[in-house]
Design brief:
Low-confidence stretches: 1-8
Order of helices and strands: HHHEEHHHHHHH
Largest sheet: 2 strands, antiparallel
Helix content: over 70%
Number of strands: 2
CATH class of the largest domain: Mainly Alpha
Strand order of the largest sheet: 1-2
Length: 226
């Protein structure tokens, strides 16, 4: 008996490639400022250049890569001013998401967020940063969805795309990572209590602490290269 051959539609293929490239950028397997080598990536991802180029265009629209004349695609490298401005906007979006979610979340949504939280705690205990970050991101997205405001969600996704790699690296400091985990415990408590004000406060604090870590890392990297 021969195995069934499953054909992946072209549109689905480039979306899968975009997902894999996105993870590589977030997890710093493609460093900020690095050129995306199409030949190398085609071999590594085992795809032709057509879906790869379509995936790169998707990531450019998300703000994760830049398409430069005569240079191709470059992984976005944010300046300190870019980071400050983007985090300032993101803090407001996160706070608004949390406040509305505490008011509008359903029992089913809360149960799913709690389940992801426990999975994230297990990843933290294993010190599995990629798994931790994927669950962390899913929790923040679920909180945003629970706010039930499609305009807020669209804006949130657009701004957050620029910060994912920086948010991932911010957990590489052990003490800061533990503190972030403690803040997530506070989020669960605030959501469970439907305490909108507490949810706004903890998310604002969470983003402010992330920003502090990211700025420290950027400055340290700048000093090292200098």
């Amino acid at each position: 008996m021969s195995a069934e051959v499953i054909l992946i539609p072209r549109s689905a293929l480039h979306e899968q490639v975009a997902h894999r490239l996105r993870q590589m950028l977030i997890e710093n397997r493609i460093a900020p400022g690095a050129k995306l080598n199409e030949r190398q990536l085609s071999e590594e991802l085992n795809v032709s250049r057509t879906p790869l180029r379509e995936a790169i265009k998707m990531l450019a629209a998300e703000g994760l890569v830049e398409l430069l004349p005569n240079r191709g695609a470059i992984a976005v490298e944010l300046s300190e001013a870019d980071v400050l401005n983007t985090f300032e906007v993101m803090a407001g979006l996160e706070a608004q998401s949390g406040e509305l979610a505490a008011q509008r979340i359903t029992e089913a949504e809360l149960a799913e967020i709690k389940a992801m939280h426990f999975e994230m705690l297990a990843a933290y205990t294993r010190r599995d940063l990629p798994a931790y970050y994927r669950l962390n991101s899913a929790i923040h997205n679920a909180i945003n969805v629970a706010a039930k405001n499609p305009v807020l969600t669209a804006t949130y996704n657009q701004v957050n795309a620029r910060l994912q790699a920086l948010r991932f690296r911010s957990n590489q400091d052990e003490d800061k990572w533990k503190f972030a985990m403690d803040e997530h415990e506070q989020m669960i408590s605030a959501l469970t209590a439907r305490d909108a004000a507490a949810m706004r406060r903890v998310l604002q604090s969470h983003l402010a602490n992330k920003l502090d870590v990211v700025i420290q890392q950027l400055r340290a990297a700048g000093q090292a290269s200098a």
